[in-house]
Specification:
By secondary structure, the chain is α+β, with helices and mostly antiparallel strands. It is 29% helix and 33% strand. The chain has 4 helices and 8 strands, in the order βαβαββαβαβββ.
């Protein structure tokens, strides 16, 4: 049996393994069960083809991540990319520039890629199939987020290099931001 799942791509994410991550995963299970298996994460490098061996990418990521100190970001309001794409997400309200700096530092060979849209750090709630459903999910997500009483902060210190296509991803390697904090 063959699967036409598209070409293999690579991405770099910071998993959100906390109460906040569990909240987003619960929201996703409720509103878009088809993607309930996807763990909550901040994307550092969106999906892209690899320009060379995986080992070279891992080596580059390990070397450069050692030069970056761990940092914290804070989530703000629920928004969407409508009408461009039917995606609902939670935007960063504090320290988004640090995610952009990290993206720019690591967007180099063998992971260099010119993205079709400007990089905007966020936590995806749901990537849907149509704009009408996305508008419904946006309304419900805003209501649920308003009532979420836990921390809105994410500590970014470990990044995971992943391989996949469509909505099936496998962890390849984990790297740690390990420069001393200033």
């Amino acid at each position: 049996m063959s699967c036409d799942c598209g070409p293999v791509q690579y991405a770099l994410v910071a998993y959100v393994r906390s109460e906040l991550g569990e909240f987003v995963e619960g929201l996703r299970r409720e509103l878009h069960p088809a993607h309930a298996h996807l763990p909550t994460h901040l994307t550092v490098l969106p999906p892209r083809p690899l320009q060379g061996p995986e080992a070279d990418a891992v080596s580059m990521l390990q070397g450069l991540s050692a030069e970056v100190a761990p940092f914290q970001v804070e989530l703000g309001e629920v928004a969407s990319f409508l009408p461009t794409t039917p995606t609902v997400f939670i935007r960063l309200s504090r320290a988004g520039y640090k995610m952009r700096e990290l993206h720019d530092l690591l967007n180099r060979t063998p992971l260099a890629y010119e993205e079709s849209l400007p990089y905007m750090p966020h936590v995806t709630v749901a990537k849907l199939d149509d704009n009408q459903r996305a508008a419904e999910v946006l309304r419900t997500s805003k209501e649920r987020w308003e009532h979420y009483g836990g921390s809105h902060c994410i500590e970014v210190e470990r990044l995971t290099f992943v391989r996949g296509s469509a909505h099936a991803w496998t962890d390849v390697a984990e790297v740690t931001l390990s420069a001393p904090r200033r």
